[in-house]
Specification:
single chain, 406 residues, mainly beta, Neuraminidase, 3% helix, 44% strand, globular
Length: 406
């Protein structure tokens, strides 16, 4: 994406939004509440089109669930839900409570996830025979040796089965940390380490998600800290010393036309000018004051990272983003939890397409009532988007899983 001055971007942003004819959204599962789950938090896709997700509440104990949705053998028939795990009493079994993110499907066929309140990172091993129980193993215990927690943005997987997570609270300086887990060579416990403790100040505080590059560098954002207190984009580079990373601040948000307070994980997407660019969303700043989509691109001429805001959110657009972006073939997709105006809490699914140096926004679907799109979007190989709503349909709803073809 070609870089242009921010003032030129801001001057023409308001002419770029459009509302598409509503794409056809299909609800493939409605949660029933306890003992079923409630308030799903995004999805991951496994083999054969099977979907996996977690609910923040519900289950027999009210602390949330891990679920599986199996597509029907005959198109048009109902999907089949299976509860794989119910989070129970966290004070007696240490399994954590209330996941606020989607799980990860490992190359080994195991399911990995993180909980947000009583914070753990866990593994679910599939049964040896169909229909058997899945086996949970807690990989990251919430004890005094590992004080970081609040894994509200889930996990990312490394090339050799490693797991990484951004802890929004705790750590040595109480400003959050990045936690790394390495699987054993054959069997036994995982190695757990604090890869980096955020000290606050100009180095950032409260990380809000991370992404991993092919060369092992961890990129991420913090919601607070930096020279203006509006958050930063950072890179953590592994050092020759095991379990030690060096932080580099790539950009300091000001909260003005460049955005501020990034609260969702960034993504790495290919661009013609470089190996990749860093994209993400901010919750404040931009031309409408409600945040936008930022691009951070390495400029070969100046040898620096250059930031632009190719799209700003505002009332009358889709609203404030509530999940990480999804990139596919140069387009970006996301959801907002609050809809078109203060009086309309329904939320939207949106698409952002390149339009010169800017992004042209299309609203794919506008939810009615308190639907509250939640968690990440995923895209199947056939180009179908899958997502979740935290509530609905109706004011007493427990959430849904839906799909939509852009």
């Amino acid at each position: 994406m070609r870089l242009v001055p921010l003032l030129a971007i801001v001057a023409i942003l308001l002419s770029l939004a459009r509302i598409a004819a509503q794409a056809q959204l299909e609800t493939i599962y409605e949660f029933a509440g306890p003992p079923d789950g409630s308030a799903p938090q995004g999805l991951a896709e496994g083999p054969n089109g099977v979907l996996y997700g977690m609910t923040a509440y519900g289950g027999s104990f009210g602390y949330g669930t891990v679920f599986q949705l199996t597509p029907p053998a005959t198109p048009g028939r109902p999907w089949t839900e299976t509860i794989l795990l119910e989070f129970s009493n966290p004070y007696s079994d240490g399994t954590g409570t209330n996941p606020f993110s989607s799980p990860v499907v490992g190359k080994d066929g195991f399911i990995y996830g993180a909980t947000g309140v009583i914070s753990t990172i866990f593994q679910l091993q599939p049964p040896a025979a169909p229909g058997g129980a899945w086996t949970e193993t807690v990989l990251y215990p919430p004890d005094e040796d590992y004080p970081a927690g609040g894994f509200n943005h889930g996990l990312i997987g490394g090339p050799n089965g490693e797991l990484y997570a951004a802890a929004s609270v705790g750590g040595y300086y109480r400003c959050g940390a990045v936690v790394g887990l390495t699987p054993p060579p054959v069997s036994g416990p995982w190695s757990v380490s604090i890869e980096y403790d955020f000290p606050g100040g100009n180095s950032g505080c409260q990380p809000a998600g991370i992404a991993l590059s092919a060369d092992g560098v961890i990129y991420g954002v913090t919601t607070y800290g930096g020279t203006s207190g509006q958050g930063i984009v950072f890179a953590l580079t592994p050092s020759p010393i095991p379990y030690q990373y060096t932080e580099t601040v790539l950009y300091n948000f000001t909260g003005a036309a460049d955005g501020g307070l990034p609260s969702q994980p960034p993504i790495l997407a290919p661009v013609p000018e470089a190996a990749f660019a860093i994209y993400g969303t901010t919750a404040s700043g931009g031309s409408g004051g409600l945040g936008g989509v930022f691009e951070l691109l390495w400029d070969l001429g100046s040898g620096t990272w250059v930031e632009s805001l190719p799209f700003s959110f505002a009332w009358g657009y889709p609203g404030i983003p509530s999940s990480a972006l999804l990139e596919s073939n140069g387009d970006f997709y996301g959801v907002t939890a609050n809809g078109y105006a203060n009086s309309d809490p329904g939320g939207t699914i949106f698409q952002l397409s390149p339009n010169g140096p800017l992004l042209l926004e299309t609203v794919l679907h506008k939810f009615e009532g308190p639907a509250g799109p939640s968690g990440n979007l995923i895209m199947s190989k056939s180009g179908v988007l899958y997502g979740t709503t935290v509530s609905g349909p109706g004011p007493a709803g427990y959430g849904t899983v839906y799909r939509i073809k852009p």
